[in-house]
Amino acid sequence: MAETVTTDIDDPTSDPLEVARLAAERVRELTGVARFDIALVLGSGWGGAAAHLGEQVGEVSADDVPGFSRSGVPGHSGTLSAIRYTDAAGASKHALVLGARTHYYEGKGVRRVAHGVRVAAAAGASVIVLTNGCGGLRPEWLPGTAVLIKDHINLTADSPIEGATFVDLTDLYSARLRGVARTVDASLDEGVYVQFRGPHYETPAEVQMAHRIGGDLVGMSTALEAIAARQAGLEVLGISLVTNAAAGISATPLSHTEVIEAGREAGPRIGALLAEIVRRIG
Ligand code: 8IG
User: Fold this and answer.
1) Which of 81, 119, 124, 166 is 20 to 30 A from 233 via CA?
2) Given this model, what pLDDT does residue 74 score?
3) Does the annotation count 276 as an active-site position?
4) Which residues are within 8 A (CB) of 170 and not within 5 positions of it... i.e. 6 or more apart?
5) Which residues contact 152 (CB under 8 A, 6 or more apart)?
6) Which of 42, 181, 48, 44 is nearest to 120 (CA)?
7) For 34-75, what is each residue's pLDDT tens digit?
8) How does pLDDT run across 197-218, given as a tens digit for each residue?
């Protein structure tokens, strides 16, 4: 009886960090990888990046890992992949690729939003790369432009942290890792990511608000995950793919088809970019 309670992430009496520890144990067992070095969350447009990085040595359905899928409820749960790669110094490393992001707008609660990041930390990762597809506020960022996240503004009015745990978010998006990324591509711009709740896109007035408060990118993920990552002691690299000009920035309305097309077109280029960044992180 007590056991069921502790492993159900949706039970408020359970400990989400304990569920993450159990999930990480399961990931290790099912992939045969004892310890991961780095983890990646692949957002819109970034799905092909794992293939550029190295050799897949294990794959686990999220349904088989505690906390990722509500049992009995059908839905698209992703997979978690173990990728073996050789870093820039020639050492053999393992990356955990999380293809199972839960968005805040799904309404499943912040525990599920933060779970993947917490599992990554419990599986040994010291670095997490959070990627996303988003809207851009600078007209010069054409669809297909990758931008490093230098900071965020969390407009969800929520936090992945429960209770009175005060986590410092200064340099949340590691300056060191952004520096590594720029050794791969010196032309990479940086911007402030604004997480809206979604799932609707912003109105032009909301995009102007985001601009006036210091935002450069608008999206529906990443910020809450980054907070959970910092709480878990992970070093965070955030990279956005601008798939569309944010509402009102360009004269044309947002089209999901164009967003998908921009991601498809950028896929091979940003996949190769991300793989080289990970190799240089080590
Ligand atoms: I792809 O323009 C993508 N995701 N909030 N706004 C928000 N999320 C997005 C956008 C966008 N484009």
Assistant:
1) 81
2) 46
3) no
4) none
5) 172, 173, 192, 193, 194, 195, 222, 223, 226, 238
6) 42
7) 999 999 999 988 988 999 999 999 999 999 999 997 544 444
8) 999 999 999 999 999 999 999 9
What number does the ligand 1 atom closest to the CA of 198 have? Answer: 5
Whether 6 is in a domain gets the answer no
Q: Is 232 exposed, middle or buried (0-12, 13-18, 19+ CB in 10 A)?
A: buried
182's tokens: 């720029």
Q: What is the distance between the alpha carbons of residues 77 and 101, in angstroms, rounded to a whole number? A: 9
Does 8 fall in a domain?
no
**Closest protein CA for atom 3 of ligand 1:** 134
pLDDT for 89 beyond 60: yes
Number of domains present in the structure of the chain: 1
- Domain with residue 202: its CATH number is 3.40.50.1580
Q: Tell me which residue range forms the domain holding 271.
A: 16-281
Single pTM value for the model: 0.94
* Distance from the alpha carbon of residue 43 to the mean position of ligand 1, in angstroms: 12
The one catalytic residue in 3, 59, 202, 206 is 202
**Is position 165 within any domain?**
yes
Phi, psi of 14, rounded to the nearest 5 degrees? -80, 165
CA distances from 127 to 1, 234, 251, 281 (A): 36, 5, 39, 9
> Helices in the chain by DSSP H: which ranges?
2-7, 16-31, 49-53, 110-122, 175-184, 204-212, 223-231, 256-281
207: Cβ below 6 Å to ligand 1? no
CA distance 209 to 280: 37
Dihedral sign from CA coordinates of 242, 247, 249, 252: positive
Helix 16-31 and helix 110-122, axial crossing angle in degrees, nearest 10: 50
Which whole number is the average pLDDT over 249-260?
Answer: 86
